[in-house]
Amino acid sequence: MPALPAPDYPADVRARLEADAREVIGRYPGARSALLPLLHLVQAEEGHITRTGIRFCADLLDLTTAEVTAVSTFYSMYRRRPSGDYQVGVCTNTLCAVMGGDAIFEELKEHLGVDNGQTTDDGKVTLEHIECNAACDFAPVVMVNWEFFDNQTPASARRLVDDLRAGRTVEPTRGAPLCTFKETARMLAGFPDERPGAVEATGGAGPASLVGLRLAKGEAVPGRGADHVVAPRSTADGPAPGPAAEQSPSGRPTGQAPEGHPSSHDAPQQTSASDDHHPAGPTAEEGE
């Protein structure tokens, strides 16, 4: 039995989406390059990728529905079924997991009564475990519609989802104010966030992310001892610009590793020379 054609949007919705789609397509030298943002656009309309949305993208970009479906099912950012207003993702990659991410995920599954990828009965929250969000220095991290909630615990994560379901205001740790999944999808389609305060907000690196940079520049970091003031690296033309090397309590410059130290990134030497017990060199076959 042949498949039924995908239904179309109502005329007024179609006209509005076409106007937005034409704006997006005009940003690219080739129309088919606009497929990813157009998928976000139709996801912003219905909350997930439907047969109607796939047909719309195919018509506008002169693609087959099979081509659009292949792309929409490849990326996890496109939802294949109805989901909640708030996508609550718990990082369960290595560092977040050992810092408590696994415990948070198990707590939320029990508290919400859903499993991975499922949505609460009120349609508010979809729970999922996610991979690294490049915020390891704030582990464990929970994301809501891709906004950061850092240094979470099972108790704080439980309060977070309760507030979301109750409609209370929730503020991300950093970045723009929180919005619904559909609103987020429209922004990902390439349309600006025009809410008050959203333009000024950033999701950039927080203080924990910048400690390594400050140490590399030889700056003192609050709460750390003298050994954490590192002299700037030398260059081929002489010492790198910056503060002079400081002395640690042991009397050696803080940027210099102690004699025999096995770490190649602390000592200015080749990796092959950094470990006396495992010297690098030609294999037996190469030496013959």
Could you characterize the architecture of this molecule?
With 288 residues, the protein is of the alpha+beta class. It has three domains: 11-74, Arc Repressor Mutant, subunit A, CATH 1.10.10; 86-180, 3-Layer(aba) Sandwich (Glutaredoxin), CATH 3.40.30.10; 205-255, no CATH class. The chain is 35% helix and 8% strand. It is built from nine helices and six strands. A four-stranded mixed sheet has the order 2-1-3-4. Strands 5-6 form a two-stranded antiparallel sheet. 24% of the residues are buried.
Topology:
Layout lengths: L10 H15 L9 H12 L4 H11 L3 H10 L11 E6 L2 H19 L12 E6 L11 E3 L2 E3 L4 H13 L14 H8 L18 H10 L17 E2 L2 E2 L44 H4 L1
Parallel strand pairs: 1-2
Antiparallel strand pairs: 1-3, 3-4, 5-6
**Can you tell me the residue ranges where pLDDT is under 50 for at least 5 consecutive residues?**
226-250, 252-258, 261-269
Overall radius of gyration: 26 Å
Element string (H = helix, E = strand): HHHHEHEEEHHHEEH
Q: What's the CATH H-level homologous superfamily of the largest domain?
A: Glutaredoxin
Biggest β-sheet, characterized? 4 strands, mixed
Question: What is the mean pLDDT?
Answer: 79
The CATH topology name of the largest domain reads: Glutaredoxin
Total helical elements: 9
Overall outline: globular
CATH class of the largest domain: Alpha Beta
Helicity, as a percent range: 25-40%
As for the number of domains, it is: 3
Strand coverage percent: 5-15%
Amino- and carboxy-terminal Cα gap:
70 Å
What is the CATH-assigned architecture of the largest domain? 3-Layer(aba) Sandwich
Structural class: alpha+beta
Instruction: Tally the beta strands.
Output: 6
